[in-house]
Write a structure and sequence with these properties.
Protein name: PLAC8 family protein
Helix content: 40-55%
Number of helices: 8
Number of domains: 2
Pfam family, one: PLAC8
Shape: globular
């Protein structure tokens, strides 16, 4: 049932979805959602396929990062994992888990390749040059540098952490609870 002044609502408080030409919807404000003064951004559907902006063997383009990654690969991995996981996994916990799995079992790639898969899904990247686990097994340092550089080229700064590095266009506007409680 629609209240006076508001459009009919379907589902979970949002107007029904409109088809998008081209098959790849973009994040746009939903008009008529409750409360009407607060823009709500909804993104659905698959991510448009794209290409890697950083090559797997382009470690020489950031020599400082290459040195850090060769000496302490868990640091580079932890920084990228925090960004890839939208701050859910902290840099320290991802680095520690990677280090422990590698030190105890010698197969840290089984943990780290999952984050490469998340990165590819996030940006619609191809599984290249081979599957994610093989890439991390054979060339883990190169893969860590590539993933770090990919995030940098897309506007993130893994060295700053998730909260400080998210590009402005990727951030969703947060609305304080007091606005909802005011009459």
């Amino acid at each position: 049932m629609a209240q006076q002044g508001y459009p009919p609502i379907h589902g979970h408080g949002y107007p029904s979805a409109q088809p998008v030409q081209g098959g790849y919807p973009s994040a746009q404000p939903v008009q008529g959602a409750y409360p009407p003064a607060v823009p709500v951004y909804v993104q659905s559907g698959p991510v448009a396929p794209s290409q890697w902006q950083a090559g797997l063997c382009e470690w020489y383009k950031d020599f400082g990062l290459c040195i850090v990654t060769c000496c302490c690969p868990c640091i580079t991995f932890g920084q990228t994992a925090e960004i890839i996981d939208n701050g859910i996994t902290s840099c320290a916990s991802a680095a520690a888990i990677c280090f422990l799995i590698q030190a105890v079992a010698g197969c840290g790639c089984l943990y780290t390749c999952g984050f490469r898969s998340k990165l590819r899904a996030k940006f619609g990247l191809p599984e290249s040059p081979c599957n994610d686990c093989c890439t991390h097994w054979c060339c883990s340092c190169c893969a860590f540098v590539q993933e770090y550089r990919e995030l940098k080229l897309r506007g993130f700064d893994p060295s700053k952490g998730y909260q400080a590095s998210a590009p402005q266009q990727a951030m969703v506007q947060q609305v304080p609870m007091q606005q909802y409680m005011q009459k």
